[in-house]
Amino acid sequence: MRIRTAGVVAAFALALAASGCGGGSDEPAANESPKAAGGKLVIWADDKRTAALKPFAEKFGQENGVTVEVQAVSKDLQTNFVTAHQQGSGPDVVVGAHDWIGNLVQNGAIDPVQLTAEQKSGFNATAVKAVTFNGQLYGVPYAMENLALIRNTELAPEAPKTIEELVATGKKLKAEKKASEILCLQSGQNGDAYHIYPLYTSAGGYLFGTAANGDYDPKDLGVGKPESIEAFKKIAALGEKGEGALKRSITAENSIATFGAKKCAFLVSGPWAIADAKKANIKYDISPVPGFAGGKEAQPFVGVQAFYVAAKGKNKALAQEFVANYVTTPELAVALYNAEPRPPALTAALDQVKGTDPDLAKFQEAGKNGQVLPAIPAMAAIWDPFGKAQAAIIGGADPAKTITAAGKTISGQIK
Amino acid sequence: MSTPLSGPGPAQQVPGREPVGSGLPRSSRTARNHAPITVTGLLVKVVLLGLVAGIAVWAAFPLIEAEKWAGLALLAVTTAGLFYLYLTRRHVPAKYLVPGTLFLIAFQVFPVLYTASTAFTNFGDGHRGSKDDAIVAIQTASVQQVPGSTEYALSVATTGDPATGPLVFLVTDPATGTVSVGDAEGLRRLDPADVTVAPGGKVTAADGYTVLNFGQAGARSQEITDLVVPTAGGAIRSTGLTRAYEGKAMRAYDAGCDCVRDAESGKTWTADESSGAFVAADGERLAQGWKVNVGFDNFARVLTEPAISGPFFGTLVWNFAFAIGSTGLTFLLGLAIALTLHSPRLRGTNLYRVLLILPYAMPSFAMLLVWRDMFNTDFGLVNNLFGLGVDWFGQDWTARAAVLLVQLWLGYPYMFLVATGALQAIPRELTEATSVDGASPWQSFRSVTLPLLLVALSPLLIASFAYNFNNINAIWLTTEGGPFPADNPTNGATDLLITYTYRLAFGAQGAEFGMAAAVSIFIFAIVATVSAISFRRTRKQEEVYS
Fold first, then answer.
1. Which residues of B touch A93 (CB under 8 A)?
2. Does the domain spanning A148-299+376-413 belong to CATH 3.40.190.10?
């Protein structure tokens, strides 16, 4: 009796498990039949881009008889990609910012892409330069972005030519109680290297020198050099103990909102801020970030969004076909622009959307003299110490001492 | 990684289905053996064991695919063991203990061992995979188009069956329109009469070959990527399925010297097994490295590198202050409120209790961010409400006070809850007896209520201390460790050991998991010591008061 019960229970349990597995394995089997016939392409992108990519990926799949899956990875796409790639469960194509390239290459996670000279010439030259690393093209760019000065034309009808002019206008507005802040340039308690960079370059500072092949040279670190100290002295003069134009209380969270609330006439931000400005019904105009009077040009960072081919993808031939021969068509670039208004990197696509969106040309104008955001792994060592030094100096710390220490920390971390 | 152990997952509920326990005497063997078998019990048993078997099968496939035979054996043994255990009538204690033990192994023991083993490696960005992976990555990354070479239009074809036949490349030179066929042997020209070429230059049909469509080609992607057609200048490789180019791998691995050689400059990078990288004579190392064991290097770095060990002591002191402060302040406030609401004279206690629990009901993650913005100098609620101009997160002591204040707000409802519970468990007769004996309320609280409370609450206080000692959210989402001294951007005034090491391990140059694991072992040692001492003291206390 006892043994019989045990046997019956085991038999039923196994039968149940088998039926459960059977139910489960039906689906993979159904998926496998088109896979066997056509292969499957898996693309990882962030939430916004996934939505824009889906119709095009499906079209590519239908035209070519393959299955294309676009999967949204809403957080830490780069880290997740590297980890999944290492486990062999990563995608075939990944979409992301160009400054990931250095890290992705050192982890062997992406493969170079071969574009013809003709294909390359269709792209903005800066965008191509951004995705070139160690002399190899690692991704196909589709959008570019850079900072510009967005101003409320009701408060400040004229675009300032220099920072001094901007501060004078801002102070006047503040005195007239039309605005509460001179300039909305986000810093926060720990600084923001990306947003302060135009002023840093205008004042004569640099991050990395340029190597013979045109790449950034991690051995020539500009932070801590006399030029950087001079630059930060000028930035300090705009800080809390100086003009009060740069403040640590203006953060990534409140900078655009403050501009939207008409509390400051000038905002240093990128194309992503335009939606909020429109929502707040602000009459705005876009101009390049002004530099210091008598200083160099203010050069914002230029960032590029690109498609990459995963090195351990299961379907690399298809992935390369998609990235090198399909992403390079203007239709996709325009669709991605419609999903999120960043200037397309493909000149033909930019020309298409320029007519309907005058802001694009203005942003591009503002980024004309911009510098490509360094993709070398050493750049990762810059952000944190540089930002903190910036915040300390804005708060009134001694520029020479602070920036020398930051330089020492950064060079200690660059191996 | 826990797949082989997740098999017995649902077995956790298994003890509940034991039908024998329904109050029957268990003193005699016969009584146990003749316990009634209920239908519900059987059904639950069948379902749970079925789930175990199902999960085991589900976990087995990836293991077989990855050829992890040890893992598969472990899975099989665990599953078989579970079946045996719950089908036999013997081993009743084991039936209760095994599920918990399995979970303990899967979710506690295994991660701890994994962390400990990682601490002895250089696992991190640039050192994630094996040496072979690194070599493949280096070689692939060095393939460059031969300058001035032709860009071909490509069709993938086969001489046999589309799914299995040997693959060839049919390439068209766009300048001359000549079509050639390429395989591992090399490139041969085809007779123009035998091929049909589409306007773009792509071959659509060729005598003796079957041109694969995208679907068919996509299914054989790996073979297409691996196919290189040797030429005089390099090799023809595919770019996707429609274009081909002549490329050359500039760097190749030479097993003879265990080094990577650059074909153009002749420079060599020799494998360094101690650091997991290819290093040239001039010290230049290739970015693509591999994971190696580095022994105690990570531990030595923590102790010797001045940038790490220098601020360690100061951070440790503040870390203790933060953990004790967070726990102590929340306990004091929570207890005070609990005592107030415990008074029988107070009316509407339920309403007060609901209101007081509110902070506990809100997600702390979001609340921390809200508090951060409330402490903003110019736009924050705190300064605006009180008309202050304090640069809260900009000065050491105000930042520390602000962080503790946030912790207090987030944490007191928990202490209030547990203190209320413990208070209600203390019989009122005891305090009444003290008042009969003429003790003041304070004396009665001090000598009777508090000691009895502490017996119940000490373990919770220790747990709270251990939690706050490593409370990365409380710092990272508010001050991020700042404010930082002008001359040291790596260690701030409110940094805990965990935020400090997070910055060290993941802040610069990508993630260093080996280093992070080593530091977490140090932190574990500190917390374990503190907890062990506290528990010992608690036990003594219990002996005194109970």
1. none
2. yes
